[in-house]
């Protein structure tokens, strides 16, 4: 565990995943954060070039059918060169996901270059090489993120996951614009449209979609907006800690009061009721705890409870725990590692060391859980 007295905050500002959305398509009207006071949204793929042409990045690997995977993904240690535990914890959970590793194995460069995929493939091949037990060099992958995540410092694992996903999407998808869809009533069509435009492995495995209905309190007219998400932050308070299974199972629907720009009739800012419903549940659902107090900026050390399994209350979608990322220490310094399930075995992936963990002993690690990753059960 490396710490630096003057290291930047590892979790920085906790990010809300709901996208900053514009209720008007392009008429320069006010932008309204659908969550009212919540900060800027990390989920927006800021690195995307909206003007990029839609030359095809398509390859056979993109046809990969989810659910028919062959990779076993037993983890291997990774070399922590300089405060890279946040980076390693994310790679470990990602490379324990069989569908993702299958994708890497079937990926061929064709006519495109993808430094991120090439780097992940190299790491994945080294993990597979059972003849060599030494920890894997990940520095070539770490370097790809030096601009956003300064070398030598620890950063927020949740932000890294989103940046990693952005990079993969950017190198695989034909369309790189933020998805915008208004007023379509058929939710299935919206998701189909999204996937036909994109369909990278990240979209197939980790992206979900919200439908938000904004109902004006004055004219009672509704405006609908769809937006994708890659994670759903969970509150981290004493109360939610005691009833965390309940909090998790209620992610599928939320109602809140806010204000919005009523375009259809009132033509101005009005109070509204927002109903957010998940219309597509990702195969792998990423749930980070909001462990930074937005007022004091201190880390919230509350013990959080969560179950191995949960059923989403509104749509009865069942999820089972796939892995979780653990963080101990303060916001200024600390250490990350991940616990990953492969088959029926659990592994503790702690930098260079990977050890099997008795599932009975998982409870002890839950206190400091920071990011939960659940896998959707086949129905
Ligand atoms: Zn109105």
TrEMBL record:
<dbReference type="InterPro" id="IPR038765">
    <property type="entry name" value="Papain-like_cys_pep_sf"/>
</dbReference>
<dbReference type="Pfam" id="PF00443">
    <property type="entry name" value="UCH"/>
</dbReference>
<protein>
    <recommendedName>
        <fullName>USP domain-containing protein</fullName>
    </recommendedName>
</protein>
<dbReference type="GO" id="GO:0004843">
    <property type="term" value="F:cysteine-type deubiquitinase activity"/>
</dbReference>
<feature type="domain" description="USP">
    <location>
        <begin position="76"/>
        <end position="377"/>
    </location>
</feature>
<dbReference type="GO" id="GO:0016579">
    <property type="term" value="P:protein deubiquitination"/>
</dbReference>
<dbReference type="GO" id="GO:0005829">
    <property type="term" value="C:cytosol"/>
</dbReference>
<dbReference type="InterPro" id="IPR050164">
    <property type="entry name" value="Peptidase_C19"/>
</dbReference>
<dbReference type="InterPro" id="IPR001394">
    <property type="entry name" value="Peptidase_C19_UCH"/>
</dbReference>
<dbReference type="InterPro" id="IPR018200">
    <property type="entry name" value="USP_CS"/>
</dbReference>
<dbReference type="GO" id="GO:0005634">
    <property type="term" value="C:nucleus"/>
</dbReference>
<feature type="region of interest" description="Disordered">
    <location>
        <begin position="26"/>
        <end position="57"/>
    </location>
</feature>
<dbReference type="InterPro" id="IPR028889">
    <property type="entry name" value="USP"/>
</dbReference>
């Amino acid at each position: 565990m490396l710490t630096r007295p003057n290291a930047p905050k590892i979790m920085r500002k906790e990010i809300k995943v709901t996208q900053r959305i514009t209720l008007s398509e392009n008429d320069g009207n006010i932008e309204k954060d659908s969550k009212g006071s919540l900060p800027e949204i990390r989920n927006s793929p800021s690195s995307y070039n909206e003007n990029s042409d839609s030359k095809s990045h398509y390859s056979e690997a993109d046809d990969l059918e989810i659910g028919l995977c062959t990779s076993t993904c037993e983890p291997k240690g990774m070399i922590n060169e300089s405060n890279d535990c946040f980076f390693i914890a994310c790679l470990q959970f990602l490379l324990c996901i069989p569908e993702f590793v299958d994708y890497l194995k079937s990926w061929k460069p064709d006519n495109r270059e993808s430094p991120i995929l090439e780097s992940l493939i190299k790491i994945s091949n080294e993990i597979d090489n059972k003849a060599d037990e030494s920890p894997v060099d990940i520095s070539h992958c770490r370097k790809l993120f030096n601009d956003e995540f300064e070398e030598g410092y620890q950063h927020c694992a949740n932000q890294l996951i989103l940046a990693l996903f952005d990079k993969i999407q950017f190198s695989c998808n034909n369309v790189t614009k933020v998805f915008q869809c208004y007023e379509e009533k058929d939710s299935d069509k919206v998701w189909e449209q999204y996937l036909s435009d994109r369909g990278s492995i990240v979209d197939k495995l980790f992206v979900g979609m919200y439908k938000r209905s904004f109902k004006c309190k004055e004219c009672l007219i509704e405006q609908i907006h769809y937006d994708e998400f890659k994670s759903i932050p969970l509150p981290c308070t004493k109360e939610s800690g005691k009833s965390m299974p309940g909090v998790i199972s209620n992610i599928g629907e939320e109602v809140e009061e806010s204000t919005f720009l009523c375009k259809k009739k009132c033509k101005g800012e009005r109070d509204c009721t927002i109903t957010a419903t998940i219309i597509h549940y990702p195969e792998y659902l990423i749930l980070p705890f909001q462990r930074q107090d937005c007022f004091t900026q201190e880390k919230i050390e509350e013990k959080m409870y969560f179950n191995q399994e949960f059923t989403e209350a509104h749509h009865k979608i069942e999820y089972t725990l796939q892995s979780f990322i653990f963080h101990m220490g303060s916001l200024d310094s600390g250490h990350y590692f991940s616990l990953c399930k492969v088959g029926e075995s659990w592994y503790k992936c702690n930098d260079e060391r990977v050890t099997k963990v008795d599932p009975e002993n998982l409870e002890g690690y839950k206190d400091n859980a920071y990011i939960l990753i659940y896998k959707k059960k086949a129905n």
